[in-house]
Every structure is written in C-alpha cells, then in structure tokens.
Give the backbone structure.
Amino acid sequence: MHRSPRNLLLTSAVAIATAATGAALLLTASPASAAVSLSDVVPAPVSAQPAAGVTYTLPSDAAIQTAAGATDVGNYLAGILRPSTGFALPVSATTGTPTSGIALLLSGADPSVGAEGYQLDVTAGAVTLRAQTASGLFHGVQTLRQLLPATIEARTVQSGPWTVTGGRIVDYPRYGYRGAMLDVSRHFFAPDVVKRYIDEIAQYKINTLHLHLSDDQGWRIVVDAWPRLATVGGSTQVGGGAGGYYTKAQYSDIVAYAASRQITIVPEIDMPGHTNAALASYAELNCNNTAPALYTGTNVGFSSFCVSKEVTYTFVQQVLNELAAITPGPYLHIGGDEASSTPAADYRTFINRIQPYVGNAGKTVMGWHQIGQTDHTANRVAQYWGTGTSDADLSAAVSKGDKVLLSPANKTYIDMKYTNSTPLGQTWAGLIEVQTAYNWDPGAYLSGVPASAIIGVEAPLWTETITKLADIEYMAFPRLPAIAELAWSPQSARNWDTFKVRLGAQGPRWTVQGINYYSSPQVPWGTQQTTRSAYTQIEAESYNAQTGTQVETTTDTGGGQDVGFISPGDTLAYDLDFGAASPASVTTRLASGASSGTIQYRLDSTTGPIIASVPVTSTGGWQTWTSTTTNLTGAATGVHRLYLTFTGTAGADFVNLNWLRFNAGGGGLPNAYSVRQAESFSSQSGTQTETTTDIGGGQNVGFITPGDWLGYTNVDFGTPTAASVTTRLASGASSGTIQYRLDSTTGPIIASVPVTSTGGWQAWTSTTTNLSGSATGVHTVYLTFTGTAGADFVNLNWFQFNR
C-alpha cells in the first residue's frame, strides 16, 4: 500500500517510555490556586454537596487516624501524600471521631454506601472518610487524591498549599464488577509492569484485573504437574521474542499486591481453542500425538485440544486445580472463544465436561459468551465481546440463568486504535475514540438481556501490538477511566459534555505520575504549566497552548514523549521568563524524515517578531533525534508567550519536537543554570563513565555506590541563590540519597535527592528538588551518594540548578 510521508510518520511512532516519563515536566507545575470541585472527580460520584466558603488545608503536623481494620488503607494514603508534601503524616489508631487531620473510619457512613462505597466529609478542620469496609475507604481515598492538586502525585517534595474543597460526597458503585483485562500471552509483561498497571487502574475504582494467561503464542503460569507449559510454552511471544512466565510465587505476589489495592485477580486459561502453546509443549494433547511448532503470529482459530482423549481432561483438571489453589478470587475464566477448529458438538462436550472441574475447585465459571451454547452451571458469567447489540449465544446463556459481563469489542476493547493514525493497536472492531468508549449505557445496551443480568463492565487490552508499559498506558488512558465511569457512576450522573472536562483535568495528574496517555483532541486537556525559566529544558509536550499537533511516545527512552505530526501552519506556545538579559541562542531537539521547512520562534503571537529560525532537514527518520543550536536574530527579555510556528510545504514537510532550551550569552545566567553532563566531572571516586541507551544523552556516570562521589569545579551560582536542582537519574534499586555539597565531600548540604527505583538502570527520570541551603557565588559542587553498601546503586545522566 502506498503511504504518504505523513502516514509514514504516523506508523513509525513506536511507543517506548518508562514508568517515570514526564516527571521533570510536572515538577515545574505551579501550586494550585483553586481547590478542585467535589463534582469534578472521575468516576462521577453519586452525590456531591459543597459547603460554600469552606476549605481544608493539610497542615504540616497533620496525622492520619484510622479505625481498627483501616490501618492498611491509612498507610497506603500516607505513602501517596508523604513524598509530595514532605509531611511526616503519622498513621495512628483511633476509637473516636477525630476533629483534625485525616480520619478513616469504619462506622457512621450513610447506609446507602454498601460494601464498596464511602462518605467523605470535608470541614475547615478535618477530612473524614467513612465506609462499611476497607474497600470502601480505599475507594474514598481515590476520590480524596483527585480533590488535592495534581502535584500531590509527585514523588519529590512540591509546593503546597494542599487544599480540599469543603462539603460532603456520598458515593457507591453501579456495578460490583468493574474490570480491566491484560493479555500477557501475546506479549509477556513482568510482574512489576502488572503491578504498575494495577496502581494506575485502582485510581478509578476498578476492582478486578482479568489476566489472560494462555493463548497460542504463550503459556504464562507454572503448573507443577505439567512443567513444560512454562518452560516450552512460555518461551516465546508475538514476533518471536523471549516470552516469559510467572512462577507461582510471582503470581501469588501479583494477587496479593492487587488485593492491597482492593482488586481481585481473575485468571484465564483459554480453551479448547487458543491452545497452541500448550499443544506445542505436550505432544499427547494433540489428536495425532505430534506437537506443533511454537507460534509467534497473530492468527486465531487454528488450534484445539483433542476432545476425544482422556488425557485432555486430566490435563485441564490438574491445571485448574493448581490455579484455583493460588487464586483467592471467586472466578476461573475458561475462555471458550474462537474455537473454530473444534466441531460444535465437540465444543459442547468439552465445555460441559470441564465446567464441573471449576466448581469442584471451589470457583465459579466465567467464559466468553460462546459458552452460552453449553449447559449452565451455578452463577456462571458469560463475558460478551461481540460488536452488535444482540447475540444468539448470549441470549441462550441468559435464558439458562447466566449473568453477563459486558465487554463489547467496539466499545471496550482498548487495543483498538483511537484513529487511523494511532501508531499502535488494531481496527477489526472499529476505531474507538474516547467518546465512543464512553457514550453507551451498559444497562440498556443488549436487546433481550435485562439490566438485572448485567454484573458489570470490563475493558480488555489484547497485546498483539503492545510490547511495553508505555504502550499499555497509551491505549488505556484516557479510555479506561471513561469505561470505569460507566461501571461506577449512575447513568443519571453521566454526560459526555461534562465528563470530557472532568477527564481533561486528569491530564496534569497523569503527567505527574508519568503515565503515557493519548491526548485525544476530543478532550479539553488541563494543564498546570505556568511561566518557566527559558533557560531550563522545556519538554515539547509541556506547551501552554497548541494547534494541530499531537503528543506521542518517543523511541528515545530518555525523552519520554515528543510532539509529533507537526505540519506547516501548526503552532506550539510556551510561557517563558527570559530574565533581564536576552539569551544568545536556542537549542532545539527534533527529528524529521522530511527534507525542508523551518521552525520559527516568535514572541507573543503566531505573527509576532521572529527571534530565531531553525531550519528543518532530514535527520534520517521520525525518531532519529538531533539537537541543533541556533543563534538568536532578535532579543527576548522579561516574560513572554513564545510561539513555535512551522513553515514549509503542506503535505510534504513534517517535524517531531522533543525539547527546547535557550542558552545564556555574555551577561546571561551563570553556568550553574545550564545542564551539566554527569561525565564532565573534575574529580571523582569510585564511579565509571558508560554509554547510555538514552540516544540523546550520550553518556552517563554509572555504578555509583554508597561512598562514591563526583566533583564539579567553578560552578557559578551568581546572586541570588539557586532555588532547586533537577537531577536526571536511573536506578534499579530502591533507596539511597544523592547529597549536593559545597566545596568538599563533607561540606554543607544544599540539596538531598532521594533515589527510588525508576524501573531499571537505563530507565531515566528527571526529578526537581528544592534546595535546603543557599548557594551563591562560585563553588566546587560535590555529589555524594549514601545508602546501603551492596544494595543501593544509581546512574547519573545530568543535573541543572534552577532559579
């Protein structure tokens, strides 16, 4: 198929990012000046009654007081609030009703809240969450998070105030099953990735994660009775990668982690079709006693268990028994879809034979809606994934007494592309923009299925094209929160025009959290970007305004995101402070597969004075990045809105933008306020310079262990003192501190940067830390690393002081 240059651009945007993507961007956000309205949360609450003129501001000496049975939720809340506020927030037990701080109580809630709802009361003196269960308190905590400024989600200390609007929320779910599904078979995802996804979906009161553990391309769970399932069947994935599998200990750890977030794991073993990985592992499961080759493609419907062989049922029973023993939740999902290679009579025979195994293991049968062709078993759930509003198999299931879990593929399959330009995903069920995912009513969607038969909604994410966390996030956000609102909020509270505004306000929160989301043009995305220094690295996607562009993930693992699809006439705007002296030049990091065009830097409007013109030539590809420094042709002092406009030939010229930074000339900012590469040290002890996988970073200093240090001479802070320091680091460890000291390795500490795991030794994040001591004039700056010898390590890419 012939593709235009723009289509080439679209299809080349392969998503790669780390869990920490965007951290630097949002740590520049300003303090929130107005508290979030009680009715602005997602999912929409059942009832929100503001108290006029009342707000609560979290003080530095606040405590979290919990009733018996609520301590774990209290510790969870403290874990969210402590890093960003810097407050101690001790968690202690209470038997009364506290009048200050935050209280989590298991009594006194409105009776309507039920098992998962909550009542939130905010007065000038206290925040009180009440519920009947710890699950209800946990969901109330998610609401409280959203009522605080977005920067509450940061992992380093931010500026407050931490203010919540006064009033009362009474809230409870429409459906008891609010699910997400992750296919770990087409592509395998390590436990840490699954846990990250659990944390992300829990924010929106999702309470079930369905793990698709087996398919033609991979078997992902150890079964002791059949060990080759994991070692052979788990050894590959779509495209031929290494695959992987969960040990029972890893699976149990995921289950326990999910439970701590009030999420139940539903494991799926898909059968009798979608079974090539199992058939390739054991020849005796095949009717011809010959194991097929492992499969790394994406076709469906070609595999089937041998229904006539008794060993098949021995296999299935042992697998289900072992899985049930490590799954505390009520369901075992037996698949049952797309069994094209299993004759209809054999299909019924097989499903009818294996369903009692589930019940005998103490679990309830769940399956795709095709199981409606077979006998009903007690409390069985048929998961509907069709694209129509009626289905014969589903009607048969309901007539037999099945309950229904709704996952209509053209509404909830979040592996579908948003638009034809989406770089990931599929289109067989249609394009699913956010409004399409949101604008339907689960209770009235299927003809012939009464609302009383619906137990909930689930958003499946199949992973034929999904290979990493950033891909998962890009396809799930913002659609997963939209589907979560369908499952939680009453239909009367749902309206697209108000929802899209509430959803847009989540954008800054996701940016702080490093969630790689799709900035749908259907949504008015909120921003917390305010005026920033022109002399810091300005991420392209941190614009204050734009026309015609789109944020995308970049294959530069250190860059996180870029603004792509920039064509002639498109603009980006940034509010910047240039200071008293004009910069001398601007550095622009861009990529292009085209060969011409110009990025014009203009002041105050898209037709304002041009201060720089950056020529765009082909860099060799849409994710082949280069940094180019251009001298300014006009002066810029004080505060301005800077507009970047792109000129060129429509339909032929395009550019992607990663970041920009102005550079001081003579009389500009002192050198402390420029990016200082880690490997440019004047002296060091114990470290080693290495090449970094950040293709824009070149090198980093790695293997930094406790006691190691780096020294940088002639760092000029000027006057007044620096206010903060931005540090770009990576770590696979979980603790330690980088201390910034003046003039010696034991000199005064001006900043302490906590080191937590970023997800890997080349998973880079930028974190901004306020200075705890003053720094003026010229000094040698020493970076010393403290932590536990043999356990804590860190890699350092660059640092920069900020005013």
